[in-house]
Each structure stands twice: as C-alpha cells, then as structure tokens.
C-alpha cells in the first residue's frame, strides 16, 4: 500500500499563544481526516542558528538536522506566518534560509498568514509566494489570510469564524488532493 501523504507545517511565530499555530492546527486536523500524516514544526522548540552564523554545517546544533530532515521527508509543506510590519516573520524566513532549495524544490506548498489588523496578511502571503517560487516549489493558488486574528479563535485554538474555518479546510482539501496527485 502507498505511504500516506506527509504534510509538515512550519509555524512562523514564537508567541506562546499564537493564532498562526492555531490556524495551522485547524488545517492539519482536516488534512489528517482526509488521510494525511501530519506534523507541525514549532520553531520555539528548535535551537536554530541564524543563517550563515555558523560556517561549517558539522558545527550546527542537533535541532538543525532534525528540522532539515523533517522538511526533507515531507511531501507537502505549509508555511504559516504572522504579518509583521507588512511582511512575513523573520523567524520563518531564517528557517527557510537555513534549509534552502534542495529540500524545498518540487514540493507542494500551502500558505497561511495571520494579522492583528483588519487588512489581513496578503503582503506576507504574496511575499512567501515569491520565496517559494524562487525555490521552485509548487505553491497552491488558494491561500488563507486571517485578519483581526484574535477574534477568530477560541482559547483552545478552535476557529470560531465559519468563513475562515472553511477557507482553512479548503486549503487542507487542496493540499491533500493535489499533494497525492503530485506524489
Ligand atoms: C513586530 C510586529 C509587527 C506587526 N505588524 C503588523 C502589521 O503590519 N499588520 C497587522 O495587521 N498586524 C501586525 N502585527 C500583529 C500580528 O500580526 C498579530 O499579533 C498576530 O496575531 C501575530 O501572530 P501570532 O498570533 O501567530 O503570534 C505585528 C506584530 C508584531 C509583533
């Protein structure tokens, strides 16, 4: 039997209560229901250096290799980011810079952006789309921008806005459908 589709998300916020992580959680749960194997890289749990901070890869902390192999072994990636000053977060970009093209090239990628304000996270999403395209990934057209994020989730991370919830589920459905075809 074919191995299940493996979806790995990277949560680009280091906040203890993070709407980015909540949004990823809702998406991954739906993907799991559809048969995917899921994982979320919570960057708070990884001791990663800044890109180019350490010269030789052999001197990198263990977490770097753990992170890199998770990304390498994924069929599909989700990049989730908060909107910071009109762009995606630095921690997410650093994580992407650390791994680079070999691990990302040809993977299917879904994007989620979360914003405190009412305009949403389209700048982050469009920026990440350029980064993913540069790395020759296949970015699905449907992405999810979540404006006024603090009003969209309850304390347990459930999405209480039906439109946003539907969009996150639709992203999961797209990633599973096209991820399996792509695989
Ligand atoms: C440095 C910084 C810059 C921010 N810039 C914006 C912004 O440009 N637009 C916006 O809507 N919210 C902005 N916010 C608010 C965050 O998008 C909001 O707090 C979001 O929920 C953070 O994601 P998280 O909950 O996953 O940590 C900013 C927050 C920080 C810390």
Present the secondary structure layout:
Elements: E1 6-11, H1 19-33, E2 37-42, H2 62-73, E3 76-82, H3 90-99, H4 101-104, E4 108-114, H5 122-134, E5 138-139, E6 144-146, H6 162-182
Parallel strand pairs: 1-2, 1-3, 3-4, 4-5, 4-6
Bound molecules: flavin mononucleotide (FMN).
Flavin mononucleotide (FMN) binds next to α1.
Portion in beta strands = 15-25%
pLDDT averaged over residues: 97
CATH architectural grouping: 3-Layer(aba) Sandwich
Helix and strand element order: EHEHEHHEHEEH
Q: Tell me the number of strands.
A: 6
Question: Can you walk me through this structure?
Answer:
α1 (19-33) links the parallel β1 (6-11) and β2 (37-42). The protein contains 6 helices and 6 strands; from the N terminus they run βαβαβααβαββα. It has one domain (6-182): Rossmann fold (3-Layer(aba) Sandwich), CATH 3.40.50.360. The relative contact order is 0.20. It has 183 residues and is an alpha/beta fold. The mean pLDDT is 97. Helix content is 41%, strand content 17%. Bound molecules: flavin mononucleotide (FMN). Flavin mononucleotide binds at residues 13, 15, 18-20, 82-86, 114-117, 119, 149. Flavin mononucleotide (FMN) binds at residues 13, 15, 18-20, 82-86, 114-117, 119, 149.
